[in-house]
Amino acid sequence: MRVVPAAPRRIHDFVPIRKLHFFLSNVLFFAYNQGFVCRCQAKRQLVEGSMLSLAWQIRDYLNRKGLIISEGIHMARDKITIVGAGRVGATAAHIAATKHLGDIVMLDIVEGLAEGKALDIAEAGPIELYDSAVSGTCDWTKTEDSNIVIITSGLPRKPGMSRDDLLAKNVRIVKDVSQKIARYSPNSIVIVVCNPLDAMVYTAAKVTDFARNKVMGMAGALDSARFSYFLASELGVSVEDIKCVLMGGHGDDMVPLPRFTSVSGIPVTELLDEGKIAELIERTRKGGIEIVNLLGYSAYYAPAAGAVKMAEAILRDKKTVVSCCAYCDSEYDAGGHFVGVPVVLGKNGVEKIVELDLNESEKAQFEKSLAHVKQLALKVDKLL
Q1: Which 3 state secondary structure label does DSSP give 266?
Q2: Which end of the chain has less Cβ packing within 10 Å, N or C?
Q3: How many helices (H) and strands (E) does the chain have?
Q4: Are 348 and 213 in contact (CB under 8 A)?
Q5: How far apart, in whole angstroms, are the C-alpha atoms of residue 109 and residue 116?
Q6: Can you give the residue range of the structural domain that contains 235?
Q7: In the predicted model, what is the mean pLDDT of the chain?
C-alpha cells in the first residue's frame, strides 16, 4: 500500500508544475513590463483562450491550491500616492487605475474628500476591469513606502491670475508636503504638478533633499500635448502623428521648437507657414489661461494625463523621451536649476537629459525663459 505524506502538497513536489509556474511567472513579468497585462485585463473578453489569459488562469489556480514557490519573479504591485484629491488628483488616480500602474493612495487635508473619490474610482473597477486598490486618507502613514508621489495639492489659478501669483501660498503647501514625503517615502520619485511649476519643483527638491534625478515636474508633457493637438487640428491629421519638443519654464515664455517638431517624420515647417506656426505657438503658451477663462478654474484632464504618463514611464522603465521640468547643471548652461528640457524617463527617474543643438534664436528664447525660472528660485529661497 502506497503511503501518502500528510504534509500539505507544495509545488516543490511536482517538478513539471514547478517549471510551468516559473515559466508563467516569467511570461507574466515580461507582459507586465511591456504593458500587455494592462491591455489583457482591460479587454479580457477579447483575449479569452490566448496564452496570456491562460497563463493568468493557471497561475491563479496554482495560487488557490497553495502550490506556490518562493523562486521565480515576484510581481509586487507598485504604490502610488497622489497628494491632493481635487480635480487633477482624482483624475490622475482614475487614469493610473485604468492603466494598472499599481495600488493608489489619495491624500487630502479635507476630511472625506479623498475617501469618497477613492471609493467612487474603486467602484468603477468592475466596469472598466481594473483591480488596483484605490484608497483615500488624511493620514500620511498610509502613504508609507510609496514608489511614486504625485503632488497636485496647491491653489489653482482663477481668471486674471498668472501662475506666479500663486507662488507664496503654494510654496508653503509644497514645503509641508515635501517634508512628509521625505519622512514617509524617502525612496520615492516625486512628480510635481502644481503651479508655478518650475518653482514648486525647486521647492520639493530643496526640502526633500532627494537626488536630483528623483524630483521632476509635469509641464512639458502637457504643453507638448497642447501644441500637438493644435497642430493636428490645423493639419487635419491624427494627434498620434505629431512629435514635438518644448523647453523652458512652464509659462508664457515657454519655448516650443518647430525645428524639432514633425508629422510622421515630416518637419512641420514643410507643412505650415511661419505665421501659422507662430500663431499656434502663442495659443500653446496661453493654453492654460484659455481653459481658466472658459471654466473659471484650471485644466485637469490633460495635466493629470501628463503626470500619469510620466509615472508609467518610470514604473515600467519605458525609457520614454518626454519634455519635463528637470535638474540641469552644465546641460544647456542652466547652472543648477530645474527647467523644462527633453529627458529620458525610466526606473531611476530622469535618466538622461537630451541635449539639442539649438540655433541662436532658440538659445535666446531658452535663456530668456531660464532667467525667469532663476528669478522664481530666488523668491522661493526667501520664502523657505
Answers
A1: strand
A2: N
A3: 14, 14
A4: yes
A5: 13
A6: 220-383
A7: 86
